[in-house]
From TrEMBL:
CDD domains: PBP2_TRAP_Siap_TeaA_like. The lineage of its organism: Bacteria, Pseudomonadati, Pseudomonadota, Alphaproteobacteria, Hyphomicrobiales. GO terms for biological process: transmembrane transport. This is TRAP transporter substrate-binding protein. GO terms for cellular component: outer membrane-bounded periplasmic space. Pfam families: DctP. It comes from Georhizobium profundi.
Length: 315
């Protein structure tokens, strides 16, 4: 009987496997680890959280398929625009005024966040929390980017985010979408000349080994999301769902705070290591090209949603 009871209890443990493409040193891994710790505190013995960092389970696009088909339960990623084109609103360049604006859109439990969460849920993904990678800057070799016109003719890697492809073309660059796992070798081999990412990604992905100049363009910020499948979510009872969301909120807030602190501190570290940091950037020079991408996506996103995201936090 004891053996039978133990087997039954073991079967009742909910296993959630999270995939992410960042190295184990990145805040994504800390996010999953802290989520697991908080969940164990709130619901002891009820969940097993397993993390697969460093693209062990493939690319972020493959995580979407895995969650839909049930080969994994969850992921931390930034592929919401591939889930539903309305969510490209979160990727529009120059859409966010600052960090406080991002908080108002994604972490205020307000009507805009509710709408975004609902869109994700309709597509089979339960958002446990919207995280952050940070505002994105451009790295190059020996070419400072002080205005949008300095990008003319540069082959730059960007994520496969269509509004960005439009914006970078408007700025005169030649954008090439590549998965993050392919970026280091692409820069090393000269497949692309430049890339854009927050400082934390530059450091954790060792991109400063193959790029020597970082220009603080802060042209965009892709939020990340911790998600599980709606199938897993709906299998949980109310107490388990409450525990999951409490653990997710605590770990999300820690991830956002840690990311912001890390990005600030890592600029000084990169500079000490010899990377040139270009601070005198004319951010407004990027606005015209950015708004061309807004216009191109207005029909797919919806003018109202774009306006609501812009207005968040201004009440």
């Amino acid at each position: 009987m004891a053996a039978g009871t133990a087997a039954t209890l073991a079967q009742d443990v909910v296993t959630i496997r999270f995939a992410h493409a960042m190295p184990a040193s990145h805040s994504y891994e800390t996010w999953v680890t802290e989520f697991a710790e908080e969940l164990e505190r709130l619901a002891p013995g009820e969940f097993e959280i397993v993390s697969y960092p460093s693209a062990q389970l493939g690319t972020e696009t493959e995580y979407l398929e895995g969650i839909r088909f049930g080969t994994i339960e969850g992921a931390v990623m930034g592929r919401h625009g591939q889930i539903d084109q309305r969510l490209e609103v979160l990727n529009l360049p120059m859409i966010y005024r600052d960090a406080d604006h991002m908080d108002a859109v994604l972490r205020s439990a307000g009507p805009v966040q509710d709408e975004l969460d609902s869109i994700m849920y309709e597509n089979g993904f339960k958002v446990l929390g919207w995280g952050e990678l940070g505002f994105r800057d451009i790295t190059t070799n020996g070419v400072p980017i002080r205005s949008a016109s300095d990008l003319r003719g540069i082959n730059i890697r960007v994520p496969n985010v269509e509004p960005w492809l439009i914006a970078f073309r408007e700025w005169g660059a030649n954008p090439t979408p590549l998965d993050l796992s392919e970026l280091y070798s692409a820069l090393q081999q000269g497949v692309v000349d430049a890339q854009e990412n927050p400082p934390e990604v530059v450091v954790t992905s060792r991109l400063n080994e193959v790029q020597d100049t970082l220009s603080l363009t802060e042209h965009a910020s892709i939020p990340s999301e911790m998600v599980i499948s709606t199938r897993v979510w709906e299998s949980l009872d109310e107490d388990q769902q409450a525990a999951v969301m409490e653990a997710a909120t605590i770990s999300r807030d820690n991830q956002v705070s840690a990311t912001r602190e890390a990005n600030e501190a890592l600029l000084a570290e990169l500079e000490e290591q010899g990377m040139a940091i270009v601070r005198d950037v004319d951010r407004e020079s990027f606005r015209e090209g950015a708004q061309a991408s807004w216009a191109a996506f207005e029909d797919r996103i919806g003018a109202d949603l774009i306006a609501n995201v812009q207005a968040a936090g201004q009440d």
